[in-house]
Amino acid sequence: MGIVSLSIPKSLLEEIEKYTRNHGFANRSEIVRQALRAYISEGKRLGEIQGEITATITTIYHKGARTGQITDIQHSYSDIVLTFLHTHVEKGYCIEIIVAKGDAQIMKEFISALKANRHVSEVKVTLL
């Protein structure tokens, strides 16, 4: 098995350690492997869709992030973004729920652009 080293924020490491203890994982590596498998599996499912689709896309990012970059991404895909809800939640985070409809390939590009933004901590996609 290969060994990979990565840097993560201390707060995320603390969450991983707590989750590892509370959910019976043998160690941090096990939880990271499982999370990566789930992430890749989700990406494969998204990669297989074709035609016109409707989806909700939930993004989470820190309130202090460069929200202009995230807004710019949404504006770049305004032809598929139907509406969105923005709200401020605990610990200084923002959640945006985006409803989008359009060609699957364009939707995939939009989702990839959001995931690639370093200020976005989480992106969840629900296909309808």
Question: Number of helical segments?
Answer: 4
pLDDT averaged residue by residue: 90
Q: What's the CATH architecture of the largest domain?
A: 2-Layer Sandwich
Would you give the CATH topology of the largest domain? Alpha-Beta Plaits
Q: In which order are the strands of the major sheet placed? A: 2-3-1-4
Number of strands: 4
Q: Could you tell me the strand content as a percent range?
A: 25-35%
Mind telling me the CATH superfamily name of the largest domain?
ACT-like. Chain A, domain 2
The end-to-end distance, rounded to whole angstroms, is 38 Å
Give the fraction of residues assigned to helices.
40-55%
Q: Please give the domain count.
A: 2
**What is the structural class?**
alpha+beta
Net shape: globular
Query: Strand count, sense and closure of the main sheet?
Result: 4 strands, antiparallel
Walkthrough of the structure:
With 128 residues, this protein is of the alpha+beta class. It folds into 2 domains: 10-44; 51-127, Alpha-Beta Plaits (2-Layer Sandwich). The protein is 45% helix and 30% strand. It has helices at 10-22, 28-48, 67-76, 104-116, and strands spanning 52-62, 81-89, 93-103, 120-127. Helix 1 packs across helix 2. The protein is globular and about 45 Å long.
